[in-house]
Amino acid sequence: MENKETLLEIKNLVMDFRIGHSKSNLMRAVNDVSFELKKGEALAIVGESGSGKSTGARILTRIYEHSAGSITFKGKSLADYVSENGELEYARQVQMIFQDPFGSLNPVHSIHHHIARPLLIHKRASKQNVTEKVYELLELVGLSPVVETAQKFPHELSGGQRQRVAIARAIAVDPEVILADEPISMLDVSVRLGILNLMADLKDKHGIAFMYITHDIATARYFAEKTAVMYVGHMVEWGESDSVTQTPQHPYSKLLLSAVPEVGRAGRRDLSVRKGEIPLWKPSSVGCPFASRCPIATEACIQSMPEATEVKPGHYARCHHL
Ligand SMILES: Nc1ncnc2c1ncn2[C@@H]1O[C@H](COP(=O)(O)OP(=O)(O)OP(=O)(O)O)[C@@H](O)[C@H]1O
Ligand SMILES: [Mg+2]
What we know:
The protein is built from twelve helices and twelve strands. With 322 residues, it is an alpha/beta fold. Helix 4 crosses helix 5, helix 4 packs parallel to helix 7 and helix 7 packs parallel to helix 8.
């Protein structure tokens, strides 16, 4: 199980957004984020709204261009993929699925069309065998009877079925990585587990790596081997999911986890820790972003963000008070 191939290696990633039209008025949505994603492994990214989770995923799918830091995929920098006309190959291997499966499907096209298109674009099938391949994928994601499903349009399916179509479309091109941005949060509670188990199968049996963005710590632990906690664009704690969720060390993670009333029932609202002001982080900001809300903050926390401390083997946190 060890020595799995590292697929994505992210180092010191930074993303600044302009506030309004001024070039100099910036907010830092992602600050000094580093992590690795290995083959067949899932990393859950948890954190309150606005912590930079989706921005991170959008950078990895090249929707946004990052301001600083490096992204390496299979040993080659993203910049090199782009400069060597390898964007399409990168895009094939790093797929994304979104929160709203309805929004990501085109209402005027059949399910067949949605899955056949990437197969043809990325030359995973020919015109002759594309339908057969569409049926195989529908079967794989649990959408049978496949012939009937392929003829349907997005509005004729349930939310859970639509998310299965989005997953089939993503895996059609044999990706190495799927970036799943809150893939179950808009679905009926009754179908969420089915989608998570489908993703777990793709991970365990097909070796696909997942970055699983969620507000739900219980599902992070259920699905992902590793968990990273984000706060105001910073990764404050990360490591094995069991260790991070059961023995959190950073005061923010502790607060976040204490706000989850019952494992298995954690929802979006449960994650909001309402005490104190969430700071607007600027490129010039210093210190720990949690200092303004932290019960144990001292002068050092206002002055600087500490380096990571290994609190347990493979479990890290960035806090002056560890
Ligand atoms: N295109 C953009 N232009 C300006 N600011 C942006 C843009 N995209 C995101 N932001 C800002 O960056 C910060 C992080 O946003 P992001 O969407 O990554 O958060 P998130 O962790 O995904 O939140 P949620 O849990 O609500 O989805 C927010 O303050 C947001 O307003
Ligand atoms: Mg988001």
